[in-house]
Design brief:
mainly alpha
Amino acid sequence: MLTRFAGMLSVLALVGCASVGDRDAADTADEPRPEILEPESVPTPDEDLLYQVMVAHLSGAAGDLEQSLVAWHQAMQLTDDPRVAEQATQLAMYADDEARALAAAERWAELVDEPTPQLHQILGFLYLREGEAELARQHLRSLLDADDHSPADVFERMEAVLGGVQDRRAALTVVQGLVGDHPDEVAGYRLLAGLALEAGEPAVALDAANEALALEPDDRDLRIIKAEALLGMGETDQALVVLDETLAAYPDDWQLRLDFARTLLDAGHDERALSEFERLHEERPHNGDALYATALLTLEAGYPDEARRYFQALLDLGERVGAAHYFLGRIAEDAGDRSEAAHRYTRVDGEYEAQAALRHAVILGEQQRYSRAAEAFDDYRSQFPEHAVRAYLLQGDMLRRAERFDDARDLYREALEDHPDRAELLYGRALVHATDGDVDAAETDLLEVLERNPSHAHALNALGYTLVDRTDRIQEGFEYIRQAHELEPDDPAILDSMGWAHYRLGNDAEALDYLERAYAKQPDGEIGAHLGEVLWERGERERARDVWREALEREPEHPVLLETLERLAPDMKE
């Protein structure tokens, strides 16, 4: 900080001399003594240039940027010396205070006959970030035309600045004009293509990439940009051709091969993608980064067996050990092997440690080891207090599904004592009350959630469904569900509630429509139970049995489904 302000001493000296005024080198004996100013004519601090510059300098040296900025901005209004405005600009830029930087730069521009390239750059970039496209274009064009700045350097610097521009289309317009003035600059086309992709203009990006490739046909990054533009235009096959050709030109570029495999997956060419992953592994069996990326992408694409092999290879290498154990645990858990998953989760450290600890606690509950699960959740909240609410919610839902309602209520009481402002805890407790049949308590909690947030769609839905399913206040419950549906029209749980409410109101056709849509989105046990019941009552009993049979295969222990079958088709439970 001291070095930043060392140069300002010259400004202090300048201002000090200006405040004293010109004098002859030698005073004469008979020169009249200077007149002493009356107190009322002494300038106030706000009007004293020397005072403001001193405050600016000393505050800056002490690390008080805010006070220094205020003083420099006051000082630049008290003098026509552009160096003061320049200092104010530079300090505001250093402090990332764009509003003050722009005001100071504009003042600086007022005080010079012709802005320097540096000032053109500052104003151009600041106007660009402010969305002032025409002003930005003027200054950036002057910067590009300056003799001491190569256009390529300017375009490369612009790329960094554009990251903070909110209006991407305005920035795109500015850059298009500048590139048009410099049609032989590859850096300009590169900038334009990248910005066009971000602005959702893949056709513009493709044109820019092609112009740049005409100048530099072997540029790897430009070829990738071209492929991305083609993908954005829906031209997947052409994009794959470009990537394939690029890979042939750069066969040792593992990151490029990884990107190519990812694109193949996105395009539905799974077998070829897996082949590329395998080739990547064979060529670089000891490259941990490549192996980790391959494992993640393979898992994301829905190939757990292949992913398991890659994660195990990571363990054999001794790299990304914590992450490998975590994802091997997820693969085991998805396959229903809770013991293997729990074993893996206990060996996780590093970035996935918190997630693994939470999954381990959940598995203990699923294994009905409730005391051990409670200890694991308590340990988790002690170790990761920032995630305590999420742990309470997961533990509470575990206890609710296990019908340990008193334990769940005690847990939520503890949670709300520690986190009284978290509405999601009230919502969780309300679900416990509702599942246990305590409609009054559920309604009380849900109404409090809605008092805090009237647009809480899931609370509206839960309250409405509880009233529709458990009371004769069906029309009142339907109104709550309708409000939830307006907020979240595609949510399968809310579609299910709409269907069930229509069924309870006697509107079978509307009920069937909502329930079929809900089941198509989320074929779980409760929605299947409701859809089957409506079909059953409409006389479509074979279709109802088909729905229930499918739901039973997925969730053979679902309580709502089993209760429905007990009432309507007890033979299906055998």
